[in-house]
Amino acid sequence: MSKIYTVIRKEYLERVRSKSFVIATLLGPAIMSLFILMPMLLSDTGKDEERVVGIIDPSGQWMQPLIESLDSQDRGNIRLQVVGEPSAGPDERIEEMKELILAGDLHSGMLVDPDFLESRQVVFYNQSVSTLVVRDEVLRPAMNEVLRQAHFRAEALPDSLFARILTPTSWSSILLTDSGEQEQDDSVSIGMAFVLIMIIYIMVIMYGNHTLTAVIEEKSTRMVEVLLASISPEDLMLGKILGIGLAGLTQFGIWTGAFYVLSQRGIEVGGFALDITFLTPVILISFIGFFVLGFFLYATMYAGIGAMCNTVQDSQQFHTTLAMGLVIPMMLLTMILRAPDSTLSVILSLVPLFSPILMFMRVSVSNPPLWQVGLSWALMIVSIWFSARAAGKLFRVGILMHGAAPTWATLIRAIKA
What is d(CA 304, CA 247) in angstroms, rounded to the nearest whole number? Predict the structure, then answer.
């Protein structure tokens, strides 16, 4: 046991004292938050950039209501420009608008049907698919508003009735728990869930990769030959995994403390507020559990593969395949968010390689039955046991092996031996 402790202590101190650990601890939350905050920030960029949209309104009665509708929606960055002289023919004005769009003088253009009140027809001219965002998110809603107002006026409805009809509903969310109820901010809850999932994703794949490279480095420098003179391969592998895992938990503890301090100060970035109340005991325990189990599951596989490889380059084919176990569930997060309790979501979240991401997402955004969470943990523990046995065989066989780069067939034969 003392030998395992020595390996754990060596691996732990070697990492927490390194410059890379300090840099990752300081910059890690900022880098991970970019995955969540950057889309929000980018969605706000360009809103102040003026876009000139050409308009041909033969009837002359729709442009002014459209301008008022855009102003009411705070779309001051969209400026309408009449194309051509009203006395000119429609075809001539359309050709002029096309030329201006192709020349870059207009962002896009629109032709409003003269009988728009009945036909509801608008033709949109553009030269880029990206302009369709302006059409669908700005111009179409504004023209729909103009059309509704025109129909109300045609029916001689009072303005007060018109305003009451179009007044939107106001919603608030109350989260019900066993301990009571509390007001819920959906955007904060979902945002915090994504932040914690990104922490699990990055830390598991990062520290799993650390296990891989640590084994390969010691093997390539022949240091492992000295170590195996006084410790068994299984104890060496266990010590490395535990030492590197403790370094990851240390980093997580530092981030949690910093997160708590920032949340108490009411830090808000890009409309996203840090809220420590999201970390309920269930979510916090689930987060730690899925991180620890996810790390051990992937670390044992990485350690076994590292023992069979002579260089980091040799391990790339295996590293990429294992990483897909974390990448694929990241791609499925939207599906889980929309239907966390569907049959497909439940099945996928019980797959051990996917559970650290998908099951934790379900815990964060819904209340899955405890038996499902417990079953996912049990399946992960069983998978860790089988993975550790397979990794132990690979470690014993490959740790002193040098020569040709291993293949998947080599790994399978070593496990069966």
Answer: 20
- Burial letters for 94-104: b for 16+ Cβ neighbours within 10 Å, e otherwise? bebbbebbeee
Please, is 93 exposed, middle or buried when counting C-beta atoms within 10 Å of its C-beta (0-12, 13-18, 19+)?
buried
- Strands 108-112 and 180-184 turn out to be unpaired
Tokens of 261: 């301090």
Alpha helices in 170-280 (DSSP H): 186-220, 223-227, 233-264
- Extract the tokens encoding 192: 């915090």
Q: Quick check: 271 pLDDT over 60?
A: no
Return the sign of the alpha-carbon dihedral for residues 132, 137, 139, 144. positive
**How would you class 62 by CB atoms within 10 Å of its CB: exposed for 0-12, middle for 13-18, buried for 19 or more?**
buried
Kindly indicate the confidence band of residue 374, based on its pLDDT and cuts at 50, 70 and 90. Answer: very high
Residues in Cβ contact with 354 at an 8 Å cutoff, skipping those fewer than 6 apart: 325, 328, 329, 332, 348
Cβ–Cβ < 8 Å for 98, 125: yes
Give the C-alpha separation, 392 to 234, whole Å: 6
**Spatial separation of the C-alpha atoms in residues 91 and 107, rounded to whole Å:** 20
Pair 142, 75: CB distance under 8 Å: yes
pLDDT level of residue 381 (50, 70, 90 thresholds): very high
Rg (the chain; Cα; Å):
30
DSSP letter for 112, please: E
Residue 268 contacts residue 40 (beta carbons within 8 Å) = no
Q: C-alpha angle with apex 302: 298 to 305, nearest 5 degrees?
A: 145
Q: Are 399 and 303 contacting, i.e. CB atoms less than 8 angstroms apart?
A: no
- Chain Cα centroid distance, residue 209: 21
Grade residue 204 by pLDDT with cuts at 50, 70 and 90: confident
Which one, of 97, 27, 6, lies nearest residue 254 by Cα? 27
> Hey, what are 72's tokens?
């009411």
Within 13 Å, how many C-alpha atoms sit on residue 156's CB side? Answer: 0
Report the distance separating Cα 54 and Cα 70, nearest Å.
14
Q: Which residues contact 246 (CB under 8 A, 6 or more apart)?
A: 8, 12
Most confident of 63-72, 163-172, 184-193: 63-72
Q: How far apart are CA 411 and CA 398, in angstroms?
A: 9
Residues forming a β-bridge with 15? none
Both structure tokens of 335:
């599906």
Query: Domains of the chain by range and CATH?
Result: 2-41+185-416 (no CATH), 51-160 (3.40.190)
